[in-house]
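Build the 3D complex.
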Amino acid sequence: MDLRQIMTVSGSGMAVQSARMKVLSENIANSESVDGDNGEAYRRQVISFQTITDRATGLKTVKVKEVSPDYNTPMRQIFDPSHPAADDKGFVTMPNVSTVIESTDLREASRAYEANINVIENTKNMMSRSLDLLR
Amino acid sequence: MPTLQSPSLVNALSHRMDYLVDRQGVLSGNIANASTPGYIARDLSFKKLVDFKPGLKAARTNVNHLQAGGAGSARGELEKDYTHIRHDGNSVKLDEQMLKMSQTQLSFTEVTRIYQKQKEMQIMAVRSGR
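Done.
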């Protein structure tokens, strides 16, 4: 195994965490959107990952499995008859996004992203130390 | 009688260096998969050179079968960490992984320094102490 190949593992970790951050920030930005392309309120998006094992080296990279809408969390119903999107009973369907949950998740994603950057730094140091042996 | 070359020391050092690189691979896999559901953290423990048997590989009868003894078991014992499995099945403790990685890096520095000293000593011997 080569130190260079190890960097691709961390690279995949970084890519996956930044995809996660993209989904999370979309959720937060649209946490009050009552209308969209499909005429319905915004539905929370959830991202999931999967491990890919390289057969030759045994290294475990990660990649995005899918980004799917969250049908498990119910949409919020708010009573506000004055709202332009209120139905005939006066209820407005709001997105099933909790900004608290998304922000906490965002912090975790950012921490994982930094951890992957540290791995690359570490691996880079190891490589330069082995190169120093050539001196 | 002491010889000019110390192949056993160089062998031991390069074996340890290979182990450290393999371990770095395993640890970076853990960190990259810190959010993957069902992923169990792994670590590599050092297998002494005495117990290391290169070239023993299980026969593969089908090209789709995974190769037994992948990089993980080549120079170390692969251990799985089943403590603290979270609700999504992931068992990676990020802080612990970072700590292990700095240990690996420190050991790597140690090994390269020893190798360098060894080299300098040999050069000095060749030059007869000049």
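The beta strands of chain B are 41-46, 76-81.
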